[in-house]
Amino acid sequence: VSVRFEEVSVGDEIPGLAKVVTREDVRAYAEASGDRNPLHLDEDVARAAGFPGVIAHGMFTMAHLASCVVRWSGDAGALRRLRAQFRAPVLMGEEIVAGGSVRSLDPASRHVTLDVWVRVERDGATEWPIRRGEAVVELF
Amino acid sequence: VVRWRDSRIGRSPDTVALNRDREGEVYPRVTVAVDQGSVGRFARSIGEDGTFVPPTWVAVPEIAAGLGPALADEGLGVELARVLHAEEEYEWRRGLRVGEIVSAQTRIDSIRGRGDVEFLTLVTTVTDQDGEEVALATSMLIVRGGSA
């Protein structure tokens, strides 16, 4: 069931979506996407680059964020835009939580603009693999 | 001082030094089938069930058209293990359906240096069989310098 434009208000939070990132997921994403950068696959390469271990693709985290938005809107074809800066690495075994809130509404185009993010709790602090991302969804 | 002078002219043998002359380069168009195999593999890897095409599936034609050829472009000078993804933006005109065939073409939008890192921006247009643009992907990559 798709959300209707009239049901949405500025400030609404969309339901968060959590996922534990596994090595198998990241390996599968590398194969499925074609991005076989060893930073995502090879411990030694990741450590040499200064990370504690292999990291998830930014695009993997972004795909999870898109899933969060699509689950809320109810229609994958309604997503018009998604922008993300990859600000912190995601390590294997960590739980990422995607979320968003409605920033603005345009009745003429029926476009909803959301602030979106992905956070992770690490060593008692919140890190933001994606912070201040933006999504635009076109609703009926 | 040497480093300052080198970075000012955009070349430094001990740092990254992507070839600025490649700005504006357009890589060959690639054709990719939106088939159940590719969509299903991609969907499962991100925890979806494959009953619809995930919007970010466009990474498949995007990488085939852009990152792949950029890494193979000896004149550009990018090494995969030095690449970090800094920023991505997708714009979609519509959702894709299994059974379609899309084509993708990537242009090197800009190459910018800043000390021992450089920023490579690739812009990929994804087009359907009718020649209509269905998605635009802008990918900003960080290419790190150093000997690591």
Give the averaged pLDDT of chain B, no decimals.
88
Largest sheet of chain B: 5 strands, antiparallel
The strand line-up of the biggest sheet of chain B is 1-3-4-5-2
The total of beta strands of chain B comes to 5
In the predicted model, the low-confidence regions of chain B spanning at least 5 consecutive residues are 1-14
Given as residue ranges, the uncertain stretches of chain A (5+ residues, pLDDT < 50) are none
Give descriptors for this structure:
heterodimer; A: 140 residues; alpha+beta; 24% helix; 38% strand; B: 148 residues; 3 helices; 21% helix; globular
Commentary on this structure:
The complex is a heterodimer of chains A (140) and B (148). Chain A is an alpha+beta fold. Helices cover 24% and strands 38% of the residues of chain A. Chain A contains 3 helices and 5 strands. Chain A has helices spanning 23-33, 43-48, 58-73; strands spanning 13-20, 79-85, 95-106, 111-122, 125-138. Chain A has a 5-stranded antiparallel sheet with strand order 1-3-4-5-2, with helices on one face. The longest helix of chain A has 16 residues, at 58-73. By secondary structure, chain B is an alpha+beta fold. Chain B contains 3 helices and 5 strands, in the order H-E-H-H-E-E-E-E. Chain B has a 5-stranded antiparallel sheet with strand order 1-3-4-5-2. The radius of gyration of chain B is 17 Å and the shape is globular. In chain B, 34% of the residues are buried. The model of chain B is unreliable at 1-14 (pLDDT under 50). Chain A binds chain B through residues 19, 25, 28-29, 31-39, 45, 48-50, 57-60, 62-64, 66-67, 70, 75-86, and chain B through 38, 41-42, 44-48, 52-56, 59-60, 63-64, 67-68, 80-81, 83-92, 94-95, 144, 148.
